[in-house]
Amino acid sequence: MAIEIPRELLPVDGRFGCGPSKIRPEQVSALAAVGSSLLGTSHRQAPVKNLVRSVREGLSSLFRLPEGYEIIVGNGGSTAFWDAAALGLIENRSQNLVSGEFGGKFAKAAKTPWLQAPDVREAEPGGRADWEVVDGVDVYAWPHNETSTGVASPIRRVPAEGALTVIDATSAAGGIDFDVTQTDVYYFAPQKNLGSDGGLWFAAVSPAAIERIERIAASGRYIPEFLSLKNALDNSRLEQTLNTPALTTLHLLDSQLQWINGNGGLAWAAARTGESSQELYRWAEASAVATPFVANPEDRSPVVATIDFDDSVDAAAVAKTLRANGIVDTEPYRKLGRNQLRIATFVSIEPDDVRQLIRAIDYVLEHRDA
Fold first, then answer.
1. Is residue 178 within a helix (H) or strand (E), and if so which, with residue range?
2. What range does the domain containing 125 cover?
3. The last residue of a domain, from among 234, 262, 290
4. CA-based Rg of the chain, rounded to a whole angstrom?
């Protein structure tokens, strides 16, 4: 018999997905208000260029960019950026830390005929890999937050002369506080905490990274125009992209940046995601059947909570029951293959909805054998 969760135990908004994230209704309303005047217009004219400028300024404010750092934007998502980095950011060899899927994908992209084989440091699932200074490595790369496993890694510049510290921030940007001066490249697609859609990547780049981009572009290395970081840098300074940008993505992102910056910026956002994730971790630690997947509390993500269940609970059945009651996308990462739930606590998700989710899960657990 299907379990029906009482309405008083349900969250107001049942979206907890770690892929495309919850987009606030206010963002959708703001987009609808300008849809007929913005969508379908030239990306080389003032309305779109002004939107790109507003997004770049909003990101600069969010990340508290110091003098010399810039926000650049390019067509495509994180996958496109990995290829662009292999072409235009890694000079000879990278060290890639792998604590989940995204770190592994960048490591794979760095295995090219024109580069030395990357130094790949891979952690066991649920663990965190650490960097080590190695002669000949000119890019040290790792994800700030692994969406697949719920592992978060500290951001600290690698003290290797002439090397760049390059951070994948796709599921961290806008939800985890950090010091941007500890990085040279902090890149992301905006579908997670930044509450937007696909089709674009963004990066905060240091003067050293800009120098590297320009030097490699001038070296004679073959770089397709679409994957040229120099091209993205030049176009960003003109408040545009090489090809028509995803206008819906830009507008949703702009609305989200205004909301986060207007409420206190990155410190406010981090406190909010921390509140939500800690509710889940405390619940799992106190549970008789659940436990946080990431064993070390210092490595647990504040924006993606992965919760394991013992053999007495079928987590897939729990997720299916939640979905039938309007609570969606709590399934684990498909390639991880664990008996767990994966729950986003991105900044758009209300902490009170997380508390209601916990009540709903408890109800399902109590009634699963009824």
1. none
2. 25-262
3. 262
4. 21
